[in-house]
Amino acid sequence: MLGKACWSIVALAIGKACGSIINEDVAVLGGGASGTYAAVRLREDFNTSIVVIEQKARLGGHVDTYTIPGINTSVEYGVQTYFQYGAATDFFARFGVEIGVFPRRSLTPINVDISNGALLSAYTPPSMGATGDALATWVNLTEKYESIMEPGYWNFPAGHAIPPELLLPFGEYATKYNLAAAAPRIMAVSNVGIGGLKKVLTLYVMQAFGAPIAKATSLFSPKGNSNSLLYQRAYDLLKDDVLLESRVAEASRELSGIRLVVKREDGTTWLIKAKRLLVTAPPSLPNLEPFDLDKQEKAVFSTWTPTWSFAGVLKVPCIPENYSVSYISSASLPSDHLALRDYPFTLRFDSTGPSGLGLFRVLFATNYTITHAEAKVTISESAQKLVTAGTFNTTSDCKVDFVAFTDHNSILWRQSVEQIKAGFVQKLYALQGHRATWYTGGLFGSDYTSTVWALTSTVLPKLLKGL
What pTM was estimated for this model as a whole? Predict the structure, then answer.
């Protein structure tokens, strides 16, 4: 058996290695949307050598595709669509992935009480006209702050220079500008407001549903193919420089460069020597544990709020095909659109097709700690409540079959007004380049693939300066 000493950076550096040594210009931590994009741009456009470290067995992050056995059809249960912003369409064209207008399914929507599954027929959703007017107002409001929030927070002001409106609870802001009719759309698209939207700072609602997505007039997706195709082709291009199913076990970071001990699940180990580290995975304390964070880094990364979010493809026998079921709070009755999520979790089922298979996409998220297994139990119990409450005309039990299920757990900004005024954003961005480490991804900008790619395009030239 090999001694533990051979796993250390010191032992690897002097040749007592359990694995091989890799020398590159940039090590990219994470192979999701931002990591894949960064790796392609660095290697192909900037002639920079790279290595990507990805813990999954594939690239693509929150792109999740379920391929239906026996037929040439797939269902997307992670990232659904993209919008034109920055170089988003160009990146698909780069890999020969044809895009088209996202094909929307025509579904019958119903709202049920999230506590008992009963039909909430007394809730009146906003009219299409009211929704359109409120969204138009929202676009105008978000455009005012686009230059300090997109792409990224490079120009975000500090202290008293922060626009006071951004630090208002969204309930007050929405009342001031008559935005309530836009709230259901904002929450459905961005998943903001779990546990209640009214107390969330307006800054965080604009983070979640800012000007780029609010102004998007159409959504697109790969034409006739899965969202995974882009990342499959990116992997084919990069595979010699990608370490899948791998994690950083130990790290040393100095201005002169970085050293990473990386282990694969099969036991293979490498020492990576690089001039820069680009972190694209969520910078949570658990994710960054091997990196020996200093006081400056801990002061920032210890302030995140964890999130629990799940997505999957299920067979739900008690829901008819071509239905969409939204679980909402009874506090929204009769028409308090801002109160739809006044509950500790949110849940939605959407029929996906193909016809006859009874498949539904599920989105489930909580504002409390929950395990993978516990999430399945809550989803199953909530489906059964539809039968108990008589929401659908069925006498059978609602035994849910999870054919695909994953978690998208992460972290969020939920710093207080005082923390924001005290310069949290500036402290976060001061970490760019600190200890030869740079950052990109949804925690450093808005969390949509198109905006993450645009943010990454601003990070790369800064990372490469002086390389």
Answer: 0.94
